[in-house]
Specification:
By secondary structure, this protein is an alpha/beta fold. The chain contains ten helices and eleven strands. α6 packs across α7.
Length: 270
């Protein structure tokens, strides 16, 4: 499968995007049940990092068929792949919640890596009201076309089995799977602008924390979040206390397994 996957419109149900699940399958199931998720009509999209920390990473990997349940590659799946293919990289994965993987028999570890290696690094979904992009961590230069360019440059080598340390692959991974430029800009600039921090705290205190909070601000402040080349982008990778929209960016990594927290689930084709 290509590192960029284009998915057509769902004409029979909803398309839901969920933030980083990190092995918490029971939490995901509870929330999907609350939303009356219908697997015969609805589709589920992960923004990566479905493994590590929680107990059900292997089961979540098995869920992803890239037909009704989709995922982009996250940095945790990348660490899993690297730790399997290069023993010197395993310690980084173990230190970030990956111990479960190294306790599996060899055949099951190989299967997990085989599955994740086939995943796209970015997905474009036609929603009926534009195109929504999914990527794990960041959109370089606030331009979706740069995501496409980076993936096209390394796609063949990755599909032929190049390691994550290969120059072109590593460069794309750093910019798409690891970089935090946009979300750090939100925290350091947008959240500190005017009374935005208090607005967010009021939103959380209102009991409406399950609804996406839309960050206000002057045009020049929000300009980096108005991604060019796409109508909307969903990302994970960095914790936010609730789903947050800034410009065209939806930040969805809101669950760490703590009491009172919930996964962010966003319907992109209302």
């Amino acid at each position: 499968m290509s590192t960029l996957l284009r998915v057509g419109r769902n004409t029979s149900g909803r398309d839901l995007v969920v933030g980083d699940v990190h092995g918490h399958l029971s939490q995901l199931r509870r929330q999907l049940d609350t939303l009356d998720f219908d697997p015969a009509a609805d589709r589920l999209f992960f923004v990566g990092d479905i493994v590590d920390r929680g107990p059900d990473g292997e089961a979540l990997l098995a869920m992803v068929d890239q037909r009704t349940c989709f995922s982009v590659l996250g940095n945790h799946e990348a660490m899993m792949i690297a730790g399997y293919e290069d023993a010197s990289a395993a310690e980084l994965h173990r230190a970030n919640g990956g111990d479960w993987f190294y306790r599996l028999p060899e055949a099951r570890r190989r299967q997990c890596v085989t599955v994740a290696r086939r995943w796209p690094w970015a997905i474009e979904v036609e929603t009926g009201n534009g195109c929504t992009g999914l990527v794990h961590a960041n959109v370089p230069d606030s331009n979706w076309n740069e995501v496409v360019r980076l993936l096209q440059a390394m796609d063949r080598r990755w599909r032929d089995g190049a390691p994550l340390t290969e120059h072109g692959v590593a460069f794309a991974a750093q910019r798409i799977l690891w970089n935090r430029s946009l979300i750090l800009r939100f925290y350091s600039e947008v959240l500190e602008s005017g009374d935005n921090r208090q607005r967010l705290e009021d939103h959380l205190a209102s009991g409406d924390g399950g609804r996406e909070w839309v960050a206000p601000g002057p045009a020049e402040l929000l300009a980096p979040f108005w991604i060019t080349g796409i109508d909307a982008v969903c990302m994970g990778h960095t914790y936010v206390p609730t789903a947050i929209r800034v410009g065209k960016c939806h930040f969805l990594d809101s669950y760490r397994g703590e009491p009172g927290e919930a996964l962010s689930l966003l319907c992109i084709n209302r």
